[in-house]
Amino acid sequence: MVHNQAVDAREFHILTKMKNIRNFCIIAHIDHGKSTLADRLLEYTGTVGGKDLQDQVLDDMDLERERGITIKSHAIQMDYKLDGESYVLNLIDTPGHVDFSYEVSRSIAACEGALLIVDASQGIQAQTISNLYMAIENDLEIIPVINKCDLDSANPEEVEDQIVELIGCKREDIIRASGKTGMGVDEILRAIVERVPAPTGDPEAPLQALIFDSVFNPFRGIIAYFKIVNGTIRTDDFVKFVSTGKEYHADEIGVLKLDMSPRKELSAGNVGYIISGIKTSREVKVGDTITHVNRPCNAAIEGFQEVKPMVFAGVYPIETEDFENLRTSLEKLQLNDASLTFQPESSMALGFGFRCGFLGLLHMEIIQERLGREFDMDVITTVPNVSYRVYDKKGNMTEVHNPSGLPDATLIDHIEEPYIRASVITTAEFIGPIMTLCLGKRGELVKQEYIHGNRMEMIFDMPLGEIVIDFYDKLKSISKGYASFDYHLHDFRESKLVKLDILLNGESVDALSTLTHADNAVTFGRRMCEKLKELIPRQQFDIAIQAAIGAKIIARETIKAVRKDVTAKCYGGDISRKRKLLEKQKKGKKRMKQIGSVEVPQKAFLAVLKLD
To answer: What digits encode the pLDDT tens for the residues 241-299?
Structure first.
C-alpha cells in the first residue's frame, strides 16, 4: 500500500511538472518587432538582466544585429510566477523573412502555442499569413498581439479589425503591446500561461524526442536541440537517432537558458539540448527522433517536411587549393542551417567547387557572407538559377540544376520550369506598378481581392526563374516598401527555354551561361555583353565578348587592346616605315591573343545579377 502511495506521489509530481510547462513560438512578418518583444519577455521574467541586457538578446550572430533580422531560430527557457505558482516557459524565436520559413516550420513543430505579432502601423502582411496558416495546421493556440502601439502612426483599431477578420477571434482576446516601452508584456505572459495548453505526453513511455535544431561547437562537437514528446532522458543514457541508426551516450543534457544549463533528467514536454560528442554533421538530421537503445519507441515522430531548395548557384573558392576548406566550412554551416544543400561540381572557368541549393536570394547572400566572416573563405558565386525538368524524345525526365548539365538541343523534346503561387499584399495606390512588374516577369494574375479598407491581396502564378534575381528588390522600391511578398512552389509547366552562352574570344565561360526564356534571350544577351565590356579589364589584345544561343551569335561587344604607339619614333620619311612597324605590332598582338587568357573578375559575376 505504501509502495502505491509512493508511485502516486511520483506520478503527481511528474504531472504537475508537465502541467506547468508552456512551449510557444513567435510568428510575425519581418520587422514587426518580435525580437524586441522577446527581449522584454526575457527582461520581465528575470531571465536576462544587468550586463546581459542588450537589444536583440537572442540574435547572437553579428550579421543578425547589423541587418536587424533574425536568421536562426533561438530557444530559451524562462521561469515565471503567476498567482503563487511557478511555470516554465520555453520560447522559440523565429525569423520573419520568407527565405527562412523553413526555420519557422521547425519551431512550430516543437510548440503548443504561438504569439502572432502584428505591427500597429503596418497591419497584416503576406509572411504573417503564411506562417499563421502553418501554425493553424499544427493545431497551435494563437495569441494575437498588436505591437508598436506607442507609435504616433499606430492604428490599432484598424489592425484589430484585420486580425478579427483573419482568425475569427474575439476583440478582447487581442493584446495591445509595445516591445519598446514594455506595455502589455504582463498581459502577454498571463495569456501564455492561461491560453497555451500544457504539453501532452507520457513520461513513463519509451523515449521519443524531436530534434528541431543543431549547432556546431568546436570543443564539444555537435549539440542537438530537442523537444521530448514522450518518455524521460537522463545523463549517461544510451540513446540512438532513429533515421541514421547511430548510437551515443548522452554525456550532457540540459535546458537552454541564456547559456546552456545542465540537468540530471528531462521528461516529456521539456525542450532541451544533448551533447554526445558527435563529430560529423551527417549524423544529425533536423527532424530526426531520439530514443533509447534498450527500450526504443515504435515509430519516429511524423509531420516534419524535408526542405526543398528553390535557388541553385555554384560556389567556388578563389584559390583552388581551398577546395577542401570550403567543403569543411559548408558542412559546419549546414549544421546551423539544415536548409543548405550542396554537392561537388567543376567548371572550366572556375575549377572545382560546389553546386549549392538555397531557399532564396537573401539566404544565398547570408551564406556567402557567413562563409567570409566565420570561416575566412573568399568565394565566387555564379549566376543563381532554378531546377528544370528536361524531357527527351523518349519521354525520360532528368532534373537539371545547372545550364551546363543541359543535354544536346537535338535530344530535348521539351523543358518544364517551376512555377510559384505568389501572394502580394499592398495598398490600392501601388496596384498598377506591381501589376506591370509581375506581368513583365511572365506572371499570370490568378485573383485579386480586398482584405480590409484599401489593402488588397493579389495572387499571381509566376516562373520561379524570373523572381530569383532582382524581383524582391524591385517590388520593394516600386511600392515604397509597403508591398509584402510570399510564395510557395505550385507546379511545373512547359516553357520555351533556351541556353544562353557567353563566349570570350570564342571560348564559352560556363559560369556565366544561363537558361532563359526565348523571348527575353536577345535583350538579356545584349545587356550582358555591354555589362561585361564595362567590367572586364583591357588586355594587350582585343577581346570579343559574344552571346550565343547554340551556334547562333545574338550579340557582340569588343574590348579594344591596350596599345603602345609604336610609330612615335617615326617623324617624316616614307609611310611604308610606319606600316612595317604596325604590321610587326599586329603579329605580336595575334601571337599574344593565342596564348593569353581572359580573367573574369568577381564583380562581373555579381553584376549579372543586377543588370538593371
So the answer is: 877 778 888 888 888 776 778 888 888 878 888 888 777 766 777 777 888 888 877 77
Q: What CATH number has the domain spanning 389-495? A: 3.30.70.240
Q: Please state, in angstroms and as integers, the Cα–Cα distance from residue 610 to each residue in 200, 360, 414, 531, 606, following that order.
A: 51, 16, 29, 10, 7
Rounded Cα distance between 473 and 111, Å, is 33
What residues in the chain have per-residue pLDDT under 50? 1-16, 51, 56-60
**Cα 175 to the chain's mean position, in Å?**
30
Provide CATH code, domain 21-195: 3.40.50.300
What is the crossing angle of helices 126-137 and 101-109, to 10°? 30
Question: 208-292 has which fold?
Answer: Elongation Factor Tu (Ef-tu); domain 3 (2.40.30)
State how beta strands 252-256 and 232-234 pair: unpaired
Cα 322 to the center of its chain, rounded Å: 25
Identify whether the C-beta of residue 225 lies closer than 8 Å to the C-beta of residue 256: yes
Residue with C-alpha cell 520573419? 96
Query: Could you name the CATH architecture of 311-384?
Result: 2-Layer Sandwich (3.30)
3-state secondary structure of 177: coil
H or E element that contains 12 = helix 2-19
Q: Tell me the three state secondary structure of residue 151.
A: coil
SS (H, E, C) 276-325: EEECCHHHCCCCCEEEECCCCCCCCCCCCCCCCCCEEEEEEECCHHHHHH
d(CA 66, CA 84): 41
> Residue 54: which of 67, 65, 45 has the closest Cα?
65
How many CA atoms does the CB half-sphere of 130 hold within 13 Å?
26
Which is the CATH superfamily of the domain at 498-610?
Elongation factor 4, C-terminal domain (3.30.70.2570)
